[in-house]
Amino acid sequence: MHRIRRLASQEGYTLLECILQVMIFALFAQLFLLFFYWKGPIERQYTEHSATAWEMFAADFQAELTHLHSFEVYHNGEGVRFRTDRGLIAIEQRNHVIRKSIDGLGHVPFLTHVSSAQFSLQHPTLVVNVTMQDGTRKERNFTIGDYSQ
């Protein structure tokens, strides 16, 4: 019994154990740093998503405003209607989406996460003011194609 106690008291924290623990710590530290190195571009990508969605909306909306037969802003600027060769197109905000419908059928989302949208005609341009749900405000002028007033 005395011999077992003597062997147990001779064990201690060795240099080899210390080196092993330092190596494990260094490995976890590198993984921790890699995580933050990866996280930065991902966060920038998500914040730029809003700007990308706005630019896509602007490009699609401008493409719709060519070759018009008629054009009107209705409901005190809550939406626009215009007639093209494809039919009567309405673009308006419903819930948190700016959407497009053709002849009252279908509802194609143009821009999502919208808190409010205001359309105002200042011939020959259409001014669109949008407040997103995150509080950012966007404004864009769109050129309206030729039409008879």
Automatic annotation (TrEMBL):
Quick check: keyword Transmembrane in the entry?
yes
The UniProt entry, under Pfam families, shows: ComGF
Question: Which InterPro entries is this protein grouped with?
Answer: ComGF
Q: Taxonomically, which superkingdom?
A: Bacteria
Q: Which keywords does the record carry?
A: Membrane, Transmembrane, Transmembrane helix
Q: Which NCBIfam families match?
A: pilin_ComGF (NF041002)
Protein known as: Competence protein ComGF
Q: Which source organism?
A: Sporosarcina pasteurii
